[in-house]
Amino acid sequence: MGLSRVRAVFFDLDNTLIDTAGASRKGMLEVIKLLQSKYHYKEEAEIICDKVQVKLSKECFHPSSTCITDLRTSHWEEAIQETKGGTANRKLAEECYFLWKSTRLQHMTLAEDVKTMLTELRKEVRLLLLTNGDRQTQREKIEACACQSYFDAVVVGGEQKEEKPAPSIFYYSCDLLGVQPGDCVMVGDTLETDIQGGINAGLKATVWINKNGIVPLKSYPVPHYIISSVLELPALLQSIDCKVNMSA
């Protein structure tokens, strides 16, 4: 790490600033209720939602060949058919998808203490939101949680040539803020994208948010710092800057 003070912080969005996983679970619970009350499904309702969750985790999205709405409706359509048999039911799949999506977006909020932290940090450093994912999906989340105003810039991977962990998206982000990679810290919950990307781009430091005390595989990238909540970041940044002052 270089001997300059931190000038900019790049934040991941999903499961770093907002509880995307929790919001998604709430969406699934609403779909289970719908399938059980309106369509009289029993345990099949949970099986369908579990199958969709697996499909989402393995999702490969290519915007040139399909739109995210069609792709995710197909996840539901396939899961229903795999579980119930019979002919495909696109109409029910659409109903499930849009209920899941709308419920999920309703629960994507920036907590008040996170808003306060971002507001205070921005008095000291520049802030950039750096999120992977499909343009439409991520922009809808950004709008739902009303986080854009807390940042100097927002960069969505699906709008760029390459996503995290490619160095190019980090260099682009640096250029937007008028800073060098060695001035910046990347904060995120995913080792393979947030942390690996920050290392690839030669950032000053990477900070991994490990909420559940996971022990990563040895093959995974090693972050410079680990915290259990994004709210621990201001104190960590102070300690990083203290090290710079002591070295100087």
List keywords for this structure.
single chain; Rossmann fold; elongated; alpha/beta; Four Helix Bundle (Hemerythrin (Met), subunit A); 6 strands; 248 residues; 6-stranded parallel sheet
Write the layout of secondary structure elements.
Layout: E1 8-11, H1 20-37, H2 44-57, H3 68-84, H4 90-106, H5 112-121, E2 126-131, H6 135-145, E3 153-156, H7 167-177, E4 184-188, H8 191-200, E5 205-209, E6 225-227, H9 233-247
Parallel strand pairs: 1-2, 1-4, 2-3, 4-5, 5-6
Helix pairs in contact: 1-4, 2-3, 3-4
Structural features, described:
By secondary structure, this protein is an alpha/beta fold. It has nine helices and six strands. The radius of gyration is 20 Å and the shape is elongated. The mean pLDDT is 95. The protein folds into two domains: 8-19 and 109-242, 3-Layer(aba) Sandwich (Rossmann fold), CATH 3.40.50; 21-107, Haloacid dehalogenase hydrolase-like domain (Four Helix Bundle (Hemerythrin (Met), subunit A), Up-down Bundle), CATH 1.20.120. The longest helix is centred in the N-terminal third of the chain and has 18 residues, at 20-37. It has a six-stranded parallel beta sheet with strand order 3-2-1-4-5-6, with helices on both faces. Belongs to the HAD-like hydrolase superfamily. NANP family. It holds the Pfam family Hydrolase. It comes from Diceros bicornis minor. One of its GO terms (biological process) is N-acetylneuraminate biosynthetic process.
